[in-house]
Every structure is written in structure tokens, then in C-alpha cells.
């Protein structure tokens, strides 16, 4: 299982249950990486999508207390970990929100992070992987421009799961 998200300079990932930036290159990377795969999210993330509908061409798993129509629902981390055993680990992506990342990052072999060199005024944050002793930065692209922002595509590996 892997995590995928973009984060600002303060490791913020969202504001008002939405994205902080419009980043076409990052969205293209997200689409290409997750299409045909399994995406794991919380209920607020599902509700943040257009019409509150699941992402197309993906298996959508929602971790939340209630059953949700149109997606596979799991009610606990333990139930989620059992469910994702039905899929190849490299095909499962945690896509948010913040509480789901905090709960599942210890189970992720990698985190694919698009770092945005800006302060997005976030109201939700993920752990700073640069300061997390479990994670090590293994790949970082040179900065590139995306809709007026400088971004870098980074891969962190969970040292506890190698």
C-alpha cells in the first residue's frame, strides 16, 4: 500500500475540504498513477469529489463508520487491512484525508508526495515525512512549474516495511 498526496511547505494537504492548489501536472500524475488501481479514503475525501461520487476507473474503498452506497466501505483500520489483502499491494493507494493518512502511513511502503513550494493556507495537515524517522526520501525530481507554483515529485520509503 502507498500513500499519494500533494503538500505545501508546512505539510498542509487541504483547505475547507478541498485542494489548496490547481496543479494540472500533479493531477495528471495522480490520474496516471491511480487509474485502474484501488484508492482508499475517508468519507470527507469522497464527499469532496464532484457530486460526492467515487473516482471513475478505480476501486474505491472508504474507511468510515457508516455504509456508503457505490463504494466498498470498511469500518476500521483492521477491516481495511484485511480488505486490501485482496489486491496487489502496489495497486493500493491511500488518497486522504488527513486522519486516514495519519492512521495508514505506518502501513504504507511508500509515500508519493508532490511538494508545493508555497503556503496554501491549509487547515488539514499530514506528518512531515522529512522529520519522521520511519521514512526516508529516495527520489526527488528537480523543481518544475505547475500553474504558477514550483513543485517537486518526491518518493519516500517506509524503512519499517522493507
Which key features would you list for this structure?
162 residues; alpha/beta; Dihydrofolate Reductase, subunit A; nine-stranded mixed beta sheet; two-stranded antiparallel sheet; 4 helices
Q: Secondary structure elements and their pairing?
A:
Layout (H helix, E strand, L loop, with lengths): L1 E6 L4 E3 L9 H11 L3 E5 H6 L10 E5 L8 E3 L2 H8 L7 E5 L1 H7 L5 E7 L7 E2 L9 E6 L3 E3 L2 E10 L4
What is shown here, in short?
With about 160 residues, the protein is α/β, with parallel strands linked by helices. The chain has helices spanning about 25-35, 45-50, 75-85, 100-105; strands at about 1-5, 10-15, 40, 60-65, 70-75, 90-95, 110-115, 125, 135-140, 145, 150-160. The longest helix has 11 residues, at about 25-35.
